[in-house]
Amino acid sequence: MRAAYEIRLPAGRALKTTPVFDTYWRFASERQEMFMRRVLGSTPPWTEDPILSVHRFTNTYRASDRVSQYLIRHVTYEGSQKAEEIFFRTILFKLFNKIETWESLGAKLGALSWKDFSFDAYAKVLDGLLEDGERVYSAAYIMPSPSFGSPRKHRNHLRLIEHMMADGAPKKLAKVGSLRGAFEVLRGYPSLGDFLAFQFAIDINYSELTDFSEMEFVVAGPGARDGISKCFKDTAGLSEAEIIRVMADRAEAEFQRLGMSFRNLWGRSLQLIDCQNVFCEVSKYARVAHPDVEGELGRTRIKQKYAPRTAPIPQWYPPKWRVQPESPNNSMQRTVACGARR
Predict the structure, then answer these.
(1) Domain that holds residue 86
(2) What pLDDT does residue 336 have?
(3) CB-count exposure of residue 177 (10 Å: 0-12, 13-18, 19+)
(4) Which of 183, 205, 227 is the last residue of a domain?
């Protein structure tokens, strides 16, 4: 076991780490390498890591995940770019967070828009999916049901959308001056707790409705809090959000300390949301890599298995990021250091 590693802070304080802290950076680097190898046309296996090769983990960069990529390309930037339509499509998609649900709605109803929204029509499609034994919600998030009078959660969520639109949520978001402000607007609606409100704020911020730096504000979810508890034996009184900021600020130095060349997202360095995400994933990874480290949740197994998909995955990010992905036909296999943040 390595010697104790401390991160010195102002006023004589220090963050005291566990061995999982180094695993955090190794995981972030290797998971990103897996992603880049696949995007740039390499054939599997994309890693020799025995845990990553067996178990499923999200990408190091949140925006690179399959569902986020679908949201950005096919929900955010397809269709009207009016504020109310961007908001409607984003919230409709994210409340279910399932590509198949979105596509089933579109197949039955045509282009999905607030202008043509009908509660009864949308509810009927979702009712039918459930009657056919289909799941309409992703398992990624626990989606609590708002109280709008129906015994069926999906109908309450459709009512929530109506409520948000009637309350002028798109206009409110367009007027806020910060990512925190967007979070606070969303946090004010029924059933949207801190974690979901922050995740939805990030999703909306992929669009042109808002334009805030992802280095501005972060909220740690339950998985990230568990990951933090596994990485640090003493957090020196810092909040979870402050810990996540320390990680983002120190990323380049930590990769260098461990002798790793981190291949970032074509010039975009790790943002707060990404570091939050990695804490959540390393919480799971450590269940196998560090079974002696319990954390807060006390879970011991990783449920989802990894199945490599060899189909091409062209990447498309918000144009305002100015990220230009390489393709298999134009791969220089660049290794880039952590660059300047947007």
Answers:
(1) 78-205
(2) 36
(3) exposed
(4) 205
Residue 216 to residue 115: CA distance in whole angstroms: 33
Q: Given this model, what pLDDT does residue 329 score?
A: 59
pLDDT at 305: 75
Angstrom distance (rounded) from CA 232 to CA 251:
16
Which pLDDT score, from 0 to 100, does residue 310 have? Answer: 67
Q: Looking up tokens 């690179």, which residue turns up?
A: 64
**Residue 174, both tokens:** 């367009």
Token pair for 222: 């339950």
**263 and 191 belong to one structural domain:** no
Last-in-domain residue among 157, 182, 205 = 205
My answer on whether omega of the bond before 45 falls inside 30° of 0, hence cis, is yes
The pLDDT, as a whole number, for residue 22 is 98
Is 16 part of a structural domain of the chain? no
pLDDT in tens, 122-154: 999 999 999 999 999 998 878 999 999 999 999
Q: Which helix (H) or strand (E) holds 16?
A: strand 14-17
Domain-embedded: residue 335: no
- Residue 95 identity: L
Place of tokens 């805030």: 212
**Predicted pLDDT of residue 303:** 72
In this prediction, the residues of the chain whose per-residue pLDDT falls under 70 are 1-4, 300, 310, 312, 329-342
Domain total in the chain? 2
Residue 182 makes CB contacts below 8 A (sequence gap 6+) with 173, 176, 201, 204, 205, 210, 212
In a domain, 210, yes or no: no
Residue 318 is assigned to a structural domain of this protein:
yes
Q: Among candidates 134, 188, 130, 138, which has minimal Cα distance to 155?
A: 130
Same domain, 85 and 194: yes
Residue 73's pLDDT is 96
pLDDT at 327: 72
Q: Tell me the Ramachandran region of residue 10: left when phi exceeds 0, alpha when psi lies from -120 to 50, beta otherwise.
A: beta
